[in-house]
Design a protein that fits this description.
This protein is an alpha/beta fold. It has 20 helices and 13 strands. The longest helix is centred in the middle third of the chain and has 17 residues.
């Protein structure tokens, strides 16, 4: 029989707090079934295939990303844009991402290393650890046995050579070639390729032919030889800079023998080039086209082309057009292009706004580190980020970024292993990128090579 005092107590409690829940016996079940009783706290992840980036901040889940695994299912394009001010972890993310990708046998990476200290690029330490010698482009040493890349290398098609020559000239002049100058360049290039058969043609041959065109070049168009010479004069003066000016030695000879294009990591060290000079976009154009014709091959390898200071590419209409073609072509052959820039305004407000928009559209993955509030709002408008993501970008701490993978937006903390830490944190990185980054992530470097991109976080 119910105790009268207990009945009064239950009635009073029900009056104050509502109906009292009955005590239920515990239920034994699996975590897969039990997850249904919890309210959702974060967006679904990207799957469990790929390389580990870190942890999703709100749920604590491991965050795994791989453009080659996601392409065709969750990603329409494998290209990736990384944004953020210095000191927030872009450099650490790039380096650990590459190191983790290289654990798989079917991966190959090219890095355009535009930053450095102590006379070497910041990727030098990683290259040394992997037994790789960076390809250091330096006009001071090019004449004394340094590295040379020949824009007229026979490995590049004649069409590619002519397109590259036009881009070099247009970047240097800051405007497009007119029809007459373009004609003078075309006939000079054709004559050099037809007559020089015992060696690699070089830029000096083009300059010489522009200065002294053959009579048949004029006759074919029924114009005077002096007119052809005048049309090609400006072109010759621009190319002369690569032959006898401040960029001499790097491009005015046969391509240096022994460059290993089969190495898992290829680093082009551009740290000796003034980043604010016209030389940088010219260099990137030459390297990009040279790689397109000599490196990207239908051999089923998955390739990553990482470009630091990528605004040099995207902000030049002529260089951007070349790389836009490279991205479209490379996507069919397994190429993921990674562009690293500080501010989106560096590219969308520049002279190549149209070309920049096209390249940004092909970047289905966007990673945004901390930015000032005004910049974050502008970035959000251009990239179509949700409002909540735009609002938290200025509050992000180093190592934490907003990831937008084709509309799947999450906040991710990048984590680094102890094995990676000495390679990622050079002295320069400690002053700019070293604050507040986590210490846990994927397994240490080394060990057996993996044949597939399968990694799972518990």
């Amino acid at each position: 029989m119910l105790d009268p005092l207990a009945a009064v107590t239950d009635a009073f409690t029900s009056f104050l707090f509502g109906k009292v829940e009955t005590t239920r016996l515990p239920v034994r079940t699996s975590t897969g079934q039990a997850q249904a009783v919890y309210l959702p706290t974060a967006a679904p992840g990207l799957g469990d295939s790929g390389v580990i980036i870190g942890r999703e901040v709100y749920s604590g889940k491991g965050y795994i990303y791989d453009p080659f695994q996601l392409y065709g299912q969750q990603l329409p394009a494998p290209h990736w844009l990384v944004l953020g001010e210095s000191g927030n972890g872009k450099s650490a993310l790039e380096k650990t991402y590459v190191l983790r990708q290289l654990r798989f046998r079917d991966r190959q990476v090219v890095v355009l290393d535009a930053q450095g200290e102590d006379g070497v690029g910041e990727w030098n330490l990683i290259a040394q650890q992997l037994g790789i010698t960076p390809i250091r482009l330096d006009p001071m040493t090019a004449r004394e046995g340094g590295i040379r890349l020949n824009p007229l290398d026979p490995a590049i098609t004649t069409t590619g050579q002519l397109a590259l020559l036009r881009t070099i000239i247009e970047v240097a002049m800051g405007r497009g070639l007119d029809e007459r100058s373009g004609f003078a360049l075309k006939v000079a290039h054709a004559y050099v390729n037809e007559t020089i058969l015992d060696r690699q043609p070089v830029l000096t041959d083009i300059v010489e032919q522009l200065r002294h065109p053959e009579p048949e070049s004029a006759e074919s168009m029924n114009v005077d030889i002096d007119d052809v010479r005048a049309w090609g004069l400006d072109v010759a003066l621009v190319l002369d800079r690569l032959v006898d000016g401040d960029l001499r030695g790097m491009f005015d000879g046969p391509t240096t023998a022994g460059i290993d294009l089969d190495a898992p990591l290829i680093v082009f060290d551009l740290s000796h080039i003034d980043r604010n000079s016209i030389a940088m976009p010219i260099l990137m154009a030459i390297v990009g086209v040279w790689l397109e014709h000599t490196w990207i091959r239908p051999d089923r390898k998955k390739r990553i082309f990482l470009v630091e200071e990528a605004w040099h590419i995207i902000n030049s209409p002529f260089v951007a057009q070349l790389f836009q073609r490279l991205l479209k072509f490379g996507r069919r052959l397994g190429l993921s292009f990674v562009a690293v820039v500080h501010h989106l305004s560096d590219v969308v407000d520049g002279a190549a706004a149209k070309e920049a928009a096209a390249i940004l559209k092909m970047a289905s993955t966007r990673t945004i580190y901390a930015q000032k509030a005004d910049e974050a709002r502008a970035t959000g408008r251009v990239l179509g980020l949700p409002r909540w993501a735009v609002e938290i970008i200025p509050t992000l701490t180093p190592g934490i970024a907003v990831w937008d993978v084709n509309g799947n937006v999450q906040v991710v903390k990048h984590l680094i292993t102890e094995a990676e830490r000495p390679l990622v944190y050079t002295d320069r990185a400690m002053t700019e990128d070293g604050g507040g980054l986590g210490r846990e992530a994927t397994a240490p470097l080394g060990g057996a090579e993996a044949s597939s991109a399968e990694s799972t976080v518990a």
